[in-house]
Design goal:
Rossmann fold, Tyrosyl-Transfer RNA Synthetase, 2 domains, 16 helices, 8% strand, globular, binds adenosine-5'-triphosphate, binds magnesium ion
C-alpha cells in the first residue's frame, strides 16, 4: 500500500467512480431569505469551490418543517425555496455548474433518513449542542417535534445521498456533519464500504453575530442583513447596530474585540488600513460610532450592490429559476436512487 489506510483507498476508489471530481453537498433551510451570515459561513466557500467540485445545493424544505414557525406556514416555505435559490445565484453560484434541488423532491432522502435513524441511539441524537442552542434561541421550550430531534439524521441523508466529500457550512452545523460522519462510519462497518466520510469546511467567519449582538445572525431571529437588502434599510440597520454598550461618548475608550461593527468591518471592508485606523481610534476614544458605522455601511453597500441587481434579475425571471431547480432535481434524484438501491442491497431490503 502507498501509505494510505484501507479506508482512504476505498474512498479514493469511489472518487474515481465519480469521474475523479470530488463532490460538495451544502445548502440552506427554506426558512426565509439568505443573509450575509450565510455568505461568510458557507456561501463564500461554495462560490469559490464550485469550479473544483461537483456541487449540489439542497434547499431544505423538509427541514424547515422542523420549526414550529414554519410547519404552520407552507406558503412561506414554498416561497423560500425560490428565495434561497435566487440568493445562491445572486451571490455567484453558476447554474450550469451547480445542481439545485428542493429536499422534498427527493423521496429517497426520507427513506435513507429512516434507515440511518436505526443507526443512532436516542441519547446520541439528543446530545447535540446546536439543537440545544436552537431550542433556547428560538424559544421552543419542550414543544419541539420528533422531526426536530431527527433534523441532523435527515441531514445525514441529504449529504450521503450523493456521497459528498465536502460540506461547506457555518460553525453551528459542524455537530450535524460530525453525526453524518458517525453514520457513514457505522454503516460502512456494519454493511461494507459504501459511504465517504464527508469533511465539514467552515467559512472565514465561522459564526457571524446578529445586528442585535446575538451570537448568531439567523433568519429565524430577525437580526439580519439580507443579500438583497434594499439600500435604505441597509443604512438604517447598520446605523442602529449594537456596539460597545459601555461606551457613551465618542471620547470614551471603546472595546473592539467582539464588537459587532468591527466583526462586520473585518468580514466585509476590503480597506484593511481604514479598519485598522478605526480600531485604533475607537480604542483610544477618538472616533464616534457614527463614523465607524458610516464606513461600514459604505463597505456593505459596495459589496451588496451587484448582488442585489442580480437578485432582481432572477425575481423578474422566475421561470429561469424554476428550470434551474428542475434540472438539478433530475440529476440529484438519479444519484440518490443509485445510493438508495445500494443501501437496500447491503441491508438485504431488496427482495422485491
Ligand atoms: P434558521 O435560523 O432558519 O436555521 P439560519 O439563518 O441558521 O436559519 P440555515 O439555512 O440554517 O440558516 O443555514 C445555512 C448555512 O448558513 C449553514 O451552513 C449555516 O451554518 C450557515 N449560517 C447560518 N447563519 C450563519 C451565521 N450567522 N454565521 C455563519 N454561518 C451561518
Ligand atoms: Mg440554521
Amino acid at each position: 500500500m502507498d501509505g494510505k489506510t484501507a479506508q482512504q483507498q476505498s474512498a479514493s476508489q469511489k472518487q474515481t467512480a465519480k469521474n475523479n471530481q470530488k463532490r460538495i453537498l451544502t445548502g440552506d433551510n427554506a426558512t426565509g431569505k439568505l443573509h450575509i451570515g450565510h455568505y461568510v459561513g458557507s456561501l463564500q466557500n461554495r462560490v469559490k469551490l464550485q469550479h473544483d467540485y461537483e456541487t449540489f445545493i439542497i434547499i431544505a424544505d423538509m427541514h424547515a418543517l422542523a420549526y414550529p414557525k414554519y410547519v404552520k406556514n407552507p406558503e412561506t416555505v414554498a416561497r423560500s425555496v425560490l428565495e434561497v435559490t435566487m440568493g445562491n445565484l445572486a451571490i455567484g453560484m453558476v447554474p450550469e455548474k451547480t445542481y439545485f434541488f428542493p429536499e422534498s423532491a427527493i423521496p429517497e432522502i426520507y427513506e435513507l433518513g429512516i434507515i440511518f435513524s436505526m443507526l443512532v441511539s436516542h441519547n446520541r441524537a439528543l446530545r447535540n449542542p446546536t439543537l440545544k442552542e436552537e431550542i433556547r434561541d428560538k424559544n421552543m421550550g419542550d414543544k419541539f417535534s420528533v422531526g426536530f430531534i431527527n433534523f441532523p439524521i435527515l441531514q445525514a441523508a441529504d449529504i450521503l445521498c450523493v456521497n459528498a466529500d465536502l460540506v461547506p457550512v457555518g460553525e453551528d452545523q459542524v455537530p450535524h456533519v460530525e453525526l453524518t460522519r458517525e453514520i457513514a462510519r457505522r454503516f460502512n462497518s456494519y454493511y461494507g464500504e459504501t459511504f465517504v466520510e464527508p469533511e465539514p469546511l467552515v467559512g472565514e467567519t465561522a459564526r457571524l453575530v446578529g445586528l442585535d449582538g446575538n451570537a448568531k445572525m439567523s433568519k429565524s431571529l430577525g437580526n439580519t442583513i439580507y443579500l438583497n437588502e434594499p439600500e435604505e434599510s441597509l443604512k438604517k440597520k447598520v446605523m442602529s447596530m449594537y456596539t460597545d454598550p459601555n461606551r457613551i461618548h465618542p471620547t470614551d475608550p471603546g472595546t473592539v474585540e467582539g464588537n459587532p461593527v468591527f466583526i462586520y468591518h473585518d468580514a466585509f471592508n476590503p480597506n484593511k488600513e481604514e479598519v485598522a485606523d478605526l480600531k485604533k481610534r475607537y480604542r483610544e476614544g477618538s472616533v464616534g460610532d457614527v463614523e465607524v458605522k458610516e464606513k461600514l455601511y459604505k463597505a456593505l453597500s459596495d459589496f451588496l450592490a451587484p448582488v442585489r441587481e442580480k437578485y432582481a434579475y432572477y425575481e423578474g425571471h422566475l421561470e429561469e429559476v424554476q428550470e434551474i431547480i428542475e434540472a438539478g432535481t433530475v440529476k440529484t434524484r438519479k444519484e440518490a436512487q443509485e445510493t438508495l438501491a445500494k443501501v437496500k442491497e447491503r441491508l438485504k431490503l431488496d427482495l422485491v
